[in-house]
Each structure stands twice: as structure tokens, then as C-alpha cells.
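Progress note, project year one: complex with adenosine-5'-diphosphate.
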Amino acid sequence: LGKRITLSSEKNEIYDLALTINKALDRIEYGYKQQQQFINNASHELRTPITVISGYVDLLDRWGKNDPNTLSEGIEAIKSETNYMRQLIERLLFFARSNSGTLSEHFVMTDSADLLQEVYNASSLISEHPAIILEKNESALIYAEPGSVKQMLRIFIDNAVKYTPAEGFIYLSCEIKENKVYFKVRDTGIGIPKKDLHRVFERFYRVDSSRTKETGGSGLGLSIAKYIAKSNRAKLQLESTLHKGTTVIAIFPIYTENEAIV
Ligand code: ADP
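Model obtained:
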């Protein structure tokens, strides 16, 4: 597919035909690359809910048979994760079909504390070591597409888990300051070198795969997060110190009743 017909110097019918064929090949190649990217994207994003579901299945297997509380908690969690995966698949298909798709039809008033609490509840099974701690959870209304905001926070948590040693910590918080909502995911992990800080949001960019024992990363997580932040009118901030840790902050405007959002 990489090859193209060499164009003759004479501009005749053959020249036109060759040009048309070359353009068609360009389009096919572009479509093929888009598809490859979609497959990478999808598998990256589906890994987290699958981890949560298999965590609950193990829990049910061990304790659920004799403990009705564990049983109902497990069933509820698996139901909600399955729903999350269904949403995610729909969203990925949506992205695959349209390159410039927006999420606006699913926008609703969302309570920031409820949202973070849900993300926290699901993440407790992603990782025990490093431990995930809900440090602060203040409440305010934001106008957002909650499914995608949860997906974004999970990408940050997933990364924090991947790049933090077992004895480290991951702190989640939601703070309200000056009419803004700050969602923070802070870890005490390996950090990001200064020279890479500006590049980690690029598609497929990975700092150095030899830094961790994890080989699973595709370098897509943060580029998806960037897209989600933009669609939700949020700003992202990344602070990191090598060998000390990383903080990712998503900043949303607070919704006020005097405001109309179009
Ligand atoms: P990946 O699938 O490789 O994790 P991402 O786009 O999510 O892809 O992240 C890009 C790169 O940024 C990662 O390869 C990693 O090197 C770095 N990175 C992201 N989050 C963290 C973090 N919390 N701590 C250290 N490095 C991180």
C-alpha cells in the first residue's frame, strides 16, 4: 500500500489516471491507519473495566457464596461496570464513525462529588498496592458528559497505578476554588522527566517503555483524556517531579443557574 505510481513528465490521460489511482491509494491508506488507531484505542480503554469486573468475580468466588452483603455488592458493581463498558463501546464506535464527533447530546448537570465517589468506588479494586485514597471530595455542579469525565479520571488513575511502586500512594480529590472544580489525581510514583512533560498528551507518545515492568501501555490514554477534556470545556494541568510523583488536574467551570450553555 505504501507504493505509488511514478508520474510521467507528460500530462496526458495516463498521467491523469495515475494521479487518480495515487489519490485513491492515499485515501485507502488513511482509512486503514484510522482503523488501526481505533483498535488500539478500544483495547486500551476496555482493559480497565475488565480489570474491575474480574476483581469482583474473584471476590464473589471467594466470599460471595456465604456472605449476602458481598454478593449484592459484587453484583451491583459488575452491573455498573458492564453498563460502563457498553457506554464505552458505543462511544468508541461513535469516534470511529466520525472524526469530528462531539459528545454534546449527553451533557447534563453533574455533581462533582457524586462523580468522583463513583470513580473511587470502582477504582478500589483496580489496585490495593499502591493504595488509592479519597483525600477530599467537595461538591459543586458542573455541566458535563459524566460518562466521558469518569473515563478521563480512570485514565489518570490507571496511569498512576502503572507508574507508582506498590508501596506508594494515589490520592484522589475534588476541590472547589474560585468558581472552578479541580479534580486531582496525585501519585508518589516515578514521575515524568521535564523534557517529556509537553509530549505525553500526544497520540502514541510513551516516555520510555523500559522504565516500568508494564508493557501494556500504548501511549493513547492521555491523548484520549485530552480529547475528553476539550469536549467538556475542561483544562488539564500536569505537574511532575522525577522520582517523586505526578499530579494530573482537570479543571471545570462551576455551573451557575444564571448561565445558559449552548
Ligand atoms: P500509556 O498507555 O503508555 O500509559 P498515556 O498516554 O496514558 O499512555 O501516557 C503517556 C506516557 O506518559 C506514559 O507512557 C508514561 O511514560 C507517562 N505517564 C503518564 N502518566 C504518568 C504517571 N502518573 N507517572 C509517570 N509517568 C506517567
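The pocket of adenosine-5'-diphosphate is lined by residues 159-160, 162-163, 187, 189-192, 200, 205-207, 217-223, 246 (CB under 6 Å).
Helices lie at 13-64, 68-97, 112-123, 146-162, 221-231.
No further modelling is planned for this target in the current period.
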